[in-house]
Amino acid sequence: MAIRLGRRALLRAAGTAVLAMPALELTAPRRVHAGGTAPPKRFVIMYCGMSTGRDGFGQAAVPLNLGPGYDLPRSLLPLGTDKLTYGGTGFNVQSDVSVVSGLTIPWAESVGATPPPGGKSVEFHYNSVGPSVSGVRGAATRDNPANGPSADQIVADAIAGDTLHRVLSYRVQAVNYVGSNGGDGDSARISWQDQGGEIVGIDPIASPRLAYMSLFSGFVPPDPAEAVAAQFLLSRRRSVLDTLRVRTAALLPRMSGFDRNRMQQHFDELKGLEDRLDAMPPPTTGACELPPDPGDDPPIGDPHATTAEGNLDYTETAGYSGEEERATAMVDMIRMAFACDLSRVAAIRLTMDQTFLNMGPLSGAASDMHELTHGAVSDDAHGDAVGWHVKHFARLISLLGDTVELDGSTLLDHTTVVMLFEGGFGFDPEGGSDTSAHSTENMVALIGGRAGGLQGGLHIAAPGAHPATVVLSGMQAAGVAVDMLGEIGGNIPGLLA
Fold this sequence. Notes:
Layout: H1 7-15, E1 42-51, E2 53-54, E3 58-59, E4 67-68, E5 97-103, H2 129-134, H3 151-159, E6 168-171, E7 191-195, E8 198-202, H4 208-216, H5 224-249, H6 257-279, E9 305-306, E10 312-313, H7 323-339, E11 345-349, H8 360-363, H9 369-372, H10 379-402, E12 415-423, E13 443-449, E14 458-461, H11 467-477, E15 484-485, E16 488-489
Parallel strand pairs: 1-11, 1-12, 5-14, 6-11
Antiparallel strand pairs: 2-3, 4-14, 5-13, 7-8, 9-10, 12-13, 15-16
Helix pairs in contact: 1-5, 4-7, 7-10
């Protein structure tokens, strides 16, 4: 379990100690990492159901300069330290995050034709996620189930060990906000598992309340009340020890050499324990502890209205179910699940494909996210929509970097986090445009963490490389010995030391 042996653990040991010989021994943590004391690797994959490009405008998430010290366009500001236009400031994680641009998912030659390896059909929406997370070509129609196991499932096979939760599969966007306002189906999934030769989609948990209960129900972390009681008991035993020391001082010369040495050693060890308790600082943020209960889920918002032709009509009061609070809670739970070694692998979909999440409550822009990619409101508003996703990625990186492991390292030192998007900017084989957000050309992926020699703070251009190669690089950094993800091989040069 990724915790420090802090004051509480020592107090618990001391509170249950007895004065009889042989001398006391410090109690070890209740659970250590499998295979020794080295912290385990962790892996997170995040997915965003929108394009980083905007019709006729170009890319919103590609820095101008390559290499280290890349500049931060509006959508990547959460990686830095500047103030964000939609509230708060950046999380100062740029040095731990690399940006990979120029990625491409290939597509079929014509409607109904079989896609190439790792490719998709001619249609755009609902068919990018499968090839991205599994590396296996999708169907010949507008459909997006992965046709192979997703990266999170493969990584879990290698590093999950005996953790209680093999993979945490979460979704932030509550429902699709159109039509039936549902949340089922492959456009809402991010994880697929090979179950006896059949690829089965894993339905993610979209309720923070349910995620909390399933993760922490029955979990008993160190209790502050226990620490208070142990401190009181320890103080009483210290007073008893002081009295015993005075009374035994006169007896020690009368004891045999063996008994005298044994008694003196006993009191020396008890004194050493007291000194360590006095010198030890309070538990740090790295302690495994029960996170705050998120309470009831925010209410589910209404779907947007539709026009007489059946098209979506943005509705100011619809399309939102407290996704800001939902994302914050889900990220908090992933961090603490890793800290407590309840899980080592997480897959989190922030938004559903062709997301109609309302940006009004998030940035003040009067549009859903999807229409922002097609000219609604402004270029800056589109950058803020991409940036909202990046903000929660950056916050997770920051939290992992602040969480201390048992050996003094941080969770981030042993974790890889990959963020993918539904689309990029370029040619749209479905609509014929060369400057479209409905394109899987010029896609962008973010990868952060320090596991396995992963290099941060870089902008790497990888023209024509598949997004799965970034995922594969992250898998390798997490300690998974694989050269292929589905039909896609290789990695991104420069990402791994």
